[in-house]
Specification:
The complex is a heterodimer of chains A (209) and B (136).
Chain A (H helix, E strand, L loop, with lengths): L29 H18 L3 H26 L9 H17 L5 E4 L6 E6 L21 H13 L13 E6 L8 E7 L2 H15 L1
Antiparallel strand pairs in A: 1-2, 2-4, 3-4
Chain B lengths: L5 E6 L5 E6 L6 H22 L6 E8 L2 E7 L5 E6 L4 H19 L13 H15 L1
Antiparallel strand pairs in B: 1-2, 1-5, 3-4, 4-5
The chains are: A alpha+beta (209), B alpha+beta (136).
């Protein structure tokens, strides 16, 4: 389940071992999280003046979480290794990070066909949006924005900024309804900054030459 | 023989200093400025090497007048820099590992942003204790 709330266990979160066995990892109850999340969204709806502002605030929360998750998980892995490659960090988000947050790995990771700096990560049933229903009047809003913020936090602190402001290379969450599934699939579109691609190209050339 | 040199700096992602401490005891103004300058100018060298290797421990990245700078980069691109006069690599590694854990605890504080300075006295005290224990 989601460890978004850091509860005071007898052992500090940093000291807890990263165990392979999923059932041993202390979890937060899903209903507690769903309640907290729904209350938080209501709180935001009161204070935000528009849908995009609502999304922004939700994303900021996720951003803060993402920064800390990256450091924490990297620390608790047995071998300390940094991610210098775009694919590295994306695979990390798709695998261990998603596993830690939602109890399963994300379902899909692919690169956009035409653009070099665009990637998609899909989740068939995003935990955070499962209990939130969006009314017609708030149509473009997607509660998966919280997870998008978490991803942007991780990408940003690892040195792969997904720009902010303007049309963005940000991480955005979209609902895509699929005929075979009951719930719409959440797709996260990650667009990286050109400086990242430049650095990648430079490193590739340095490795070869 | 001049006094031993040992200055430790934590630099954030935007190249902002988050934490600075002089671990070998107070010095006169001139040397302090010099140390700070050397450390910050070595950030360029750290940047180069950072993207080349996946290891968080980078060995000596820069030298100046007999002093050398060793660096450690965390997963979140925070750099720990140590200005020293040729200490053993192993003890520096151990020191960095311990400080990494301390830093992680500070980072998990929800009121701490990645750009704010670490002003906790506890942190300061613990770092100094570690330095005394591991770096002599």
């Amino acid at each position: 389940m989601n460890n978004r709330q850091i509860i005071k266990h007898s052992l500090n979160i940093v000291d807890r071992p990263l165990s392979k066995n999923r059932s041993e990892v202390p979890t937060v109850s899903l209903s507690a999280f769903a309640y907290l999340f729904s209350e938080y969204i209501q709180y935001l709806v009161d204070r935000a003046n528009s849908i995009s502002e609502l999304e922004d605030r939700l994303e900021k929360v996720g951003f803060e979480v993402g920064i800390r998750i990256l450091e924490l998980l990297s620390y608790r892995e047995k071998v300390l290794r940094r991610k210098t490659d775009v694919l590295d960090i994306l695979r990390f988000i798709h695998g261990p990070a998603w596993q830690y947050l939602f109890g399963k790995t994300a379902d899909d990771l692919q690169q956009a066909a035409n653009a070099d700096d665009e990637y998609y990560i899909r989740d068939y049933d995003l935990l955070v949006s499962r209990y939130i229903s969006v009314p017609r009047s708030y149509e473009p809003f997607n509660p998966g924005t919280l997870a998008a913020g978490i991803m942007r936090g991780m990408l940003d602190s690892a040195g792969f900024p997904a720009r902010q402001g303007g049309a963005g290379p940000e991480v955005t969450a979209h609902f895509v309804s699929h005929k075979d599934r009951q719930r719409p699939i959440t797709t996260f579109m990650i667009k990286l900054e050109p400086s990242v691609m430049q650095r990648q190209a430079y490193l590739e050339a340095a490795k070869k030459g | 023989m001049s006094a031993p040199t040992l200055t430790f700096v934590i630099v954030g992602q935007e190249d902002n200093p988050i934490y600075e401490v002089d671990l070998a005891g107070p010095k006169e103004q001139q040397t302090q400025y010099l140390h700070q300058f050397v450390l910050h100018s070595s950030l360029d060298a750290v940047d180069e090497q950072m993207w080349m290797s996946k290891e968080p421990h980078l060995k000596v990245v820069d030298r100046f007048n007999g002093l050398s700078v060793t660096a450690f980069v965390t997963a979140g691109n925070t750099r720990f820099l140590l200005l020293h006069d040729g200490r053993s690599d192993d003890s520096i590694r151990a020191f960095f590992n311990e400080v990494y854990e301390l830093y992680l605890r500070v980072l998990l504080n929800p009121f701490h942003t990645p750009t704010s300075r670490i002003s906790s006295r506890e942190f300061d005290r613990k770092v100094k204790l570690l330095a005394k224990r591991l770096l002599g």
